Structure formats: C-alpha cells, structure tokens
Amino acid sequence: xxxxxxxxxxxxxxxxxxxxxxxxxxxxxxxxxxxxxxxxxxxxxxxxxxxxxxxxxxxxxxxxxxxxxxxxxxxxxxxxxxxxxxxxxxxxxxxxxxxxxxxxxxxxxxxxxxxxxxxxxxxxxxxxxxxxxxxxxxxxxxxxxxxxxxxxxxxxxxxxxxxxxxxxxxxxxxxxxxxxxxxxxxxxxxxxxxxxxxxxxxxxxxxxxxxxxxxxxxxxxxxxxxxxxxxxxxxxxxxxxxxxxxxxxxxxxxxxxxxxxxxxxxxxxxxxxxxxxxxxxxxxxxxxxxxxxxxxxxxxxxxxxxxxxxxxxxxxxxxxxxxxxxxxxxxxxx
Amino acid sequence: xxxxxxxxxxxxxxxxxxxxxxxxxxxxxxxxxxxxxxxxxxxxxxxxxxxxxxxxxxxxxxxxxxxxxxxxxxxxxxxxxxxxxxxxxxxxxxxxxxxxxxxxxxxxxxxxxxxxxxxxxxxxxxxxxxxxxxxxxxxxxxxxxxxxxxxxxxxxxxxxxxxxxxxxxxxxxxxxxxxxxxxxxxxxxxxxxxxxxxxxxxxxxxxxxxxxxxxxxxxxxxxxxxxxxxxxxxxxxxxxxxxxxxxxxxxxxxxxxxxxxxxxxxxxxxxxxxxxxxxxxxxxxxxxxxxxxxxxxxxxxxxxxxxxxxxxxxxxxxxxxxxxxxxx
Amino acid sequence: xxxxxxxxxxxxxxxxxxxxxxxxxxxxxxxxxxxxxxxxxxxxxxxxxxxxxxxxxxxxxxxxxxxxxxxxxxxxxxxxxxxxxxxxxxxxxxxxxxxxxxxxxxxxxxxxxxxxxxxxxxxxxxxxxxxxxxxxxxxxxxxxxxxxxxxxxxxxxxxxxxxxxxxxxxxxxxxxxxxxxxxxxxxxxxxxxxxxxxxxxxxxxxxxxxxxxxxxxxxxxxxxxxxxxxxxxxxxxxxxxxxxxxxxxxxxxxxxxxxxxxxxxxxxxxxxxxxxxxxxxxxxx
Amino acid sequence: xxxxxxxxxxxxxxxxxxxxxxxxxxxxxxxxxxxxxxxxxxxxxxxxxxxxxxxxxxxxxxxxxxxxxxxxxxxxxxxxxxxxxxxxxxxxxxxxxxxxxxxxxxxxxxxxxxxxxxxxxxxxxxxxxxxxxxxxxxxxxxxxxxxxxxxxxxxxxxxxxxxxxxxxxxxxxxxxxxxxxxxxxxxxxxxxxxxxxxxxxxxxxxxxxxxxxxxxxxxxxxxxxxxxxxxxxxxxxxxxxxxxxxxxxxxxxxxxxxxxxxxxxxxxxxxxxxxxxxxxxxxxxxxxxxxxxxxxxxxxxxxxxxxxxxxxxxxxxxxxxxxxxxxxxxxxxxxxxxxx
Lengths: 334, 328, 285, 340
Known about the structure:
By secondary structure, chain B is an all-alpha fold. Chain B contains 13 helices and no strands.
C-alpha cells in the first residue's frame, strides 16, 4: 500500500482588495491557486524528487503533506487513513510520522537552544519517551548524523558551520522516528564541497531507518543524484512524473524539456541549445483554466488553453506527462 | 495608499469614540452624586433642574450615554462650575495656545534631533556621537518639570533674563495671532517652555535616527550607492537618511502620546494659558465639565497627530500599498 | 537557554550600563532599609534650640537641609526612595507582563485576534497619558493604588506593540515552522520558542516601563496628583513649588531632582545595553 | 581577445582587524583581466571573493586594510589615486558592479529608473530627460519594457531586479563590470536567460567582466579564464578549458568531484571532508592542508608559492609535479574519506 496518497489536492488563497478598490474600482476578490488538482502517491522506501521553479507549489505541497497547511480541497491519505481533516491533538500526533528538513540551516534552528535541546524538543513536546529515553535517543541520532554527542550537545547553533547545522536539522527530524521525511532544498544554502556528504548521509539513513523521502529542489542535477522518481511541477500543476532516469534523459513535457535544457553543465565545451519557451513565470493569481504553461509553450493550441490534462492516477509509477500535444513534439526540438 | 489612509481614518474614528466612552464610564463610576460631573452644587435649584433635563440625568444609563454622545457631537460640552463659561469657548481659546507651544517644541525637537542623529551616525563613535548619546539619554531621563524648574531658577530667578511665566505681559492682551507674534514679550516667554519641552523629547528622534541610520548604512543598497560613485553626502542624505526617517516616523506616534503629558507639566510650570494648565487647574478645583472637555480635546489632539503620523508614513514608504491590500 | 551570566555580560559590556546597574542596586538597598536609615519621620517638625529648623541649608545635622516647616529632607529622600521603587517595580513589572503577553499572542496568532488586540492598543494610544492619570486621581482620590493602576492601564501599550512586531518577524522564521512540524503546541511555541528570542527586547521595555512609571508618577505628584499620605520625590518638589521658596531653597530643589534623574538615567543606560542586543545591527561594524 | 590587461593586480592582501586578532581575508592575490574577456573567480562562502571585490572598489569596512604591490587599471595606479578622483572617474564610469543580492541592492523608496538616472548623472553632465532615454535604451538591452522604469523595486520579480541591476551596471559603458553571484537564488530558466543576456552583452560591447560565483557550472559556461579561490588565496588559475580538462590542485579536484552534473545522473559525488579555514592569525600553511588527502609535512609549515604549469596556468601546491597521479587517486572516494 502506498504510504501517502494525495487525491485532487488544491490549495488556494484569497486576496481581498482594500475597501476603496472594492467599492470604487470594483476590484473583485482574487485567488492565488498555489496547488491545483494534484494527484500523487508516495511508496514506502522510495525517494520522490519534486522539481520546479519558485512559485510552482512544491513547498506548499510539502507543507500540506507535513500537516502544516490544510488543503482547501481534495484528500490526503496516510496508510489508507484520511489525514487532511485532522485537527488539534490528533493533527499534532500525526505530524510525528512526517518530519521536515528545512532549507536554511541558519534559520531553521532556534538560536537560543543548545544542540541537545534542539534535537530533544520534538520528543519532549510530544512526550514520546521519558526524559532519560529521550537523552539516549538524541545521543544515538547525533552520532548517526556524524556529530559526536559529547562534543556538540552543549553548543549553540551560531557556533556551528552550515554543514554541522544541517546535520543537527536532520537529527532533529529523524529523532522522531518518522516514516516519511520531507527535505525542502536542504542543500541550497550549503557549500558545494560538503553537499555530497549530506546527500550521502540522507540516502544512507533512509535505507538504514526505512523511511521514505520527498526531496524538493529546483536543482535538477542534485535531484539526479538522490531521487528514485521525479515529479515536475509548474505553477501549481503537476506536469510530469516518472522514474528519474527516464524523466531526465527522455523528458516528455515541453516545460520539463526547457527546464532540463537550462541547467548549466560544468563543462566548458558544452554549448547549450536555446530554449524555445518565451515569457516569464507568472504568479498563480486567477490563472485561466487549462494548462498554465500554455502561454509560454511553443506547441500550445486551443485545447491546451481550455482544459488541463491531469496525470493519470491509475498507474502512478508509470512515466507520463500532462500534455495534450505529446505527439506533436519531436526530439530534435529540444 | 488611499485604502490605507481610509482605513487608518476609520480606526481613528473608532479610537475617538472609544476614548469618549471610557471617559463616560469613568465619570459615571464616580463615587457619590453622579450628577456632579455636569451640575455644580453651587447652582441654584431652577438651573439644576434644567441642566438635569438637558443632560438626561434622570433617564436610564443607556439613554444618558446617547445624550452624552449627541452632546459631544453637537459641541454641547457644558459650562464651567467656576466661571460659568461654555467649555467649548474656553477650549477654543486655549487650544491654539497649546498648539503653538507644542508646534514650537516639536519643530525644535524634530529638526535638531534628526539632524543630530544623522551626524552622529555619520561620525559613529566620534566624540560628538558619544557625548550626544550620553547627553541625550540624560535628557530623556530628566522629567520636564525638573528641567523647567532648573531653567526658571537659574535663568529667571537668579539671572533675570527671562520672565517667569505667562504668554504675554499682563495687561497687553493681543488680538489675533499676528499681533501676538509681533509682541516681544511673547518671544521672551516662549523660549523657556520650548527649551523645556524640546530637551525632554530631543533624545527620542535623535537616538532613533542614529540607530536606524546605522541599520540602514549596513544594508546592501547603501553599498551599491557607494559603488555608484555617489558623493558621500548624497549617500548619507538621499539614500540613508530618507530610509532611516521611516524608523523615526514609526516611533513618532509613541512620542506624541508622551509629548502631551510633558505639555501639561510645562504649561503648569510656566503658567502658559493652554489646555494642559487648564486640565490641572480644573481637575484640582473639581471643575468636572472643564476637566472632561479638556481631556477630550487633548485626546483628539493625540489621536489626530497619530493619524498624521500614519499618513506621513504611507507617503514616505511606497511599499505601504502592498501591506494594505494584504498581498505582501 | 542562556542564564544569568549572559545578562551580567550584557550589562557589563558597557561602562555606562555598568555604572547604571550599580546605582540601581544602591537605590534598591536604600529602599529596603529606608526606615532604618532615615533618622526622622517624613513630616516630623524638627527644632533646633527650641525654634523650628526652617530652611536650613545642608549641614552636618541636616545632610540635605530642611524645608520651611522644619522637615528633614534627608529622611524624606530616603523614605521616598521606597515609594519610587514600589511604583517603578510594581507598575513596570505588571505592565511588561500585560504588554508582553498581549504582544506575543497578537503577533503569534495574527488574524482576528491580532486585529482586536491591536485596535484595543490603538485606543490606549489615543489616551493622553498624564491627563488620564490626573482625571483618575481627581475623581477617585489621591491614593498610591490609583496612581499605580492608572500607570499600568496605559503604559503597557508600547511594549505590546513593539513585542508584537518582533513576534511577527520571529513567527515567520523557519525554526518556528520546524517547531510546529516537530509537534509543539501553540503555547509551547509561544513561551518556549518565541519568548527567549524576544527576551532582550522585553527586558529593554521592562526597564523603559519602569523609567516611564517613575517619571510619570513624579510628574503627577509634582502637579499635586500623587498620594498625599506617602512621601515621594515628586511630592517633595510639589511642596517646594507650593511653599513658594523655589527662589531660595536650592537644596530643596536639588536633592529630589538629582535622585530622580540619577535613578532614571541609570535605568535608561542599562536599557541601552539591551537595545544593542535586541537590535544586533547596532553591534556590527 | 586583446593581450593588453585592463586590470592588473599583484600581491593583494586584505586583513580585517578584529578583537580576536587579524583575519587574513585575502592573501597574495595576483591576476590580470584582459580586454573583453570574462574572468571567473570560483570559490565557496568565506573564501574571500567578496572581500576582494570590496577591496578593488574601496568599499571595505573601516577595519579592513588593503595592501598590494600593484593595482593598475588602464594605466592608472589605483593604489595612489585620491578617493575623490577614484569616485568620480573610476567608480561606475570605468568599473561597475552587479551586486550579490539584487533583491536588496535597490533602494526600496526610489523608483528603479530614478536610481539608474542617478548613477548616470553622477558621472555625466546631462539632463534628466537624456538620462531617462538612456535608461529606456538599457532596459531594452536587458530585455525589460521601458515603461517599467517608473516602478518601485518591490514591484519587480527577482529576475527583473537582476536585469535592472545589469542595466545599471551598463549605464556608462564601463571598461570592467564586476558581477558578484549574478544568478544565485534565481530560477533555472531565469538564470539561463540572464546568462545568455550577459554573453550577448559581452559580445556586443567592449567590456571585460569579472564573474564571481560558487557555481562551477555557471563558471564553466561563461568564463574564458578561471581562478579557484580558497582560504583567501588563488589556488589555481588557468584558462577555462585547461582547468576543466587538466585540473592540478587537490582542491580543484575535490570541487569537481563534489559537483553534480545533469549529464551524469546517478554518478557518485564525493564531498571534501572538513570545513573551510577560519583565517585568524598569521597564515603559515597551505589553507587547504587540513582537508587535503595529499598533504605532506611541508604543507603544514609553509605556504606554497605559485608554480607555472603551462602558459597562463598557475597553481599553489607543493605536489604540482605529481598532478597526473593525484588526479587518478582523487577519483576514488576512499582517497578522500579514509585518510582522515
């Protein structure tokens, strides 16, 4: 059984204009549609990569899965049980199973807590174990992420380097013994030379401790190194999903093609093709129906603007793209 | 921006209404005869009955409240127990005197304080900065009645340079503002109160300006302004000071609230015929209608100045538009 | 969480705040032992050679001189210290307690709760501070409790506003989301995660509140709206002003004035040290 | 490419005096920037690349002290030029900057166009209208609509701000543009477009560019020559092709191992163990020594001096002669992670 299942999940925000604009200029209330009609499954022991540019809804998706932001429509199932409508105490209990690793290790650790307290905070807040049990578990997990407990327990975050901080962040997520870990761009603030170490650590721990992982990044080359499956999002819509190598080597959707084509390559001889897409990414405010990539897509026709062809949910592991005009796209176009 | 200003205006009116209500409640909670607030026991019987009817003092509380609100709006603020003058007439004269002194003090404070703040930040840790900070903090810690008394004792009593109080020499009642401003006696008398008010409040804009200048000077756009090859003075005034001013305006509201308090003390000390002095005198002599009216008028002054602060802020910061519509 | 040592370091990092700190400690000591230090009662008429010791300048017998009615100013000063410390301490602490909680709750929850609490704070901003105290005292009588009540009712507004702003900026930081994801409840987040981060600001405003309480009480007393039964520094100056001896009795003016200024300045100096912690940009460069 | 150097720097040192002792942020840096080339400086956070720029632009904070043997720009000796003259004739007119955080580098209270007009009019006598025409022209060059110049910075997206910053840098046709992480924090597609725009501009006008970034892929795509910076020093300096095809310095080798490429999905990445150095106190060793798997005793007691390998290829390493074999060893993860 799938660990997580998202069924037609939406998250919309309302923007109410001020009184004057409402009354005098008749500005209507507008909607930001951060995530729309998202269907997704997460299997046990897999690493699902989510790729996309800023504003594509990848962070909102994480927040919804982690139980930090409720979807405005649709259902989220965890081990077959519906969890999106949980509230209060039950929601707090549920959060234990889905832990997050955050983007910015300088921001995600409370500057007034010592390392030990940071890691112990989750178990303490939920009273998972007696204080002594928490102590040994914190020591274990710190050791597992490569920080010697005796040396680090009493330190404050500002006394640590970026890499050490991110390890503390990982420890404080894993000490909860979650079944799913969501990593939201955990490397983007770290130096290149130590990124691989964190990536290795995460991959190793996932195998050792049997959690599945959602790894979110805008950097496809990093995703290429950790994910088993890859989901590509654009302005709140899922546009392509499939096994990693297939998506990266043989992308189907025009957006995925452009995205992969735009990734810089550390090779001075390589000459990148000029992507054929135009325009800028918009904000998902009152988006028209249909494919949101259509305005920038060289292949778009009337059908694209009218309806959005969602991903097929019947076979979630299959490589597929949400595009009407897959047949019209030829390989020499990228 | 209009949305923002309109909304602040709405809040201002709500605040005004709430302050008036609080005042009503406080006066009704008064132990003893509740009619005391509008009717002096010294009045003759017939007048007392007439007043009772006019103010609805025999009616139930909610009706009294409505009458109270109606009277406020129609400027029926009652008559002084002492002089039997209409409260609104007394206030109309006193209001401008207060505003005059306040404006003088505020101008001195803001111009000098902001200027000093800029220079202090510019020459950070220089002698001016260090002395300015210490002197500013000491001024901030000195209540105005002590500064005022000190000035009176030294400059008036000992050296006799300035008159001890009042607004103009006795027996020379000016007619109109121009006449007043042409009077040398007025200028002699406004100096000490202005310095007293100014000394107490100068530290606030000065130190805030200094601190927010230092904060702004550390930001990236200042570095870029320097890299653009702009003259240091341009960087200081055009880029840093304008942004730092936002910090001062934010806290100006707080300052205004306290400034009215300082005003009361200074007016009493220098016998300045303003609302502050009136407040103290009427409260001391239990002249309730006047005390109530004065309090309301002072509240209106504070609330109005707070509103002006908000407007100034929205003018200075173009980003305000966003937060008003709730997008940012 | 950092302990007492940190505060000691903050205060001692700066010469002015160090001096201020010890002056405050001095005043506190005097306040505690006031009845044993003061040689006379506050309104005890003293006689020298059978005549009222009226308007004596400072001397060995009367270290800070006497009033026109022969009261010993030194005893008055010492006993008034206690009044001031009580007023400053009680209203400063209560007001920061109210202000901090309202600021934390409004800032953390946002939305309607924030709107209501902030409108309420706005209303208090519309109340002229000193006039409000004057009206209250004039109506209800010259009692110390009323003075404290009036100060407390108004003074928390600034701390609430400032702490709310700080709370909002902290709430948006990632470690708060992290705490939520780890299953911390709202109260735990407010008081365990946010509170320590607003603590420097909170202490800054606690000390401002104390300073403002002292100044306000002194001003009200000077205008004749203090407690008539309890001696206070402002009240001493009020008696001087009433007696009309301002021109001659410089010592009568100097003694309470110096005490007020010294104590409040010390508080301001100490709070300045916290300001540099609360506002890290001031420290850098 | 012309052979005449626009900018010539020899032995540049910058140290910050702090209460904990002097921090040697930049040590013995020498390089040339030639006419219309892109010179890349690659380095991680804290390696001193930002300090280097600040030193060149005289923007160091008061506790920063810059000493050097030569800083010569188009024949002017920048070391001795008085501040006023430097500000009027060199800054922005000849050397302009695209700062790291375009997000915060525009003053929020002024309109974007006005900020560019200000830069133009600070150096050139012209009316506001002429300056605005120039801004419109520049906006066109960087691909922004001209009517956007009356917007405030907060109305711009990240990519638009970055383009506005580039427009501002081009305003006076400077001989040298310093770009500090010009695309960091931008989306891939936006980054791609801005890089393409920069390349186009480079071809169209006769400016040289110093491009500073931690992103090796961006450096590889953009630069003619590259310097790899670590611990305040240039560890390796070479033409772009040489650096990527025959890297010599262990740090460069490690960096290449650690950097993922979308063309090698699933390839193993190897991190460099340890952390960057703190640079406080006297510098008497190779800064990379604590993290280097190939270190020898000498590395801890002496700072290696630059060794020339081939023309325009210099490295600071005692084992430069063994580069061939080290390169082989560096490919294995065991080399990096078991020696400690």
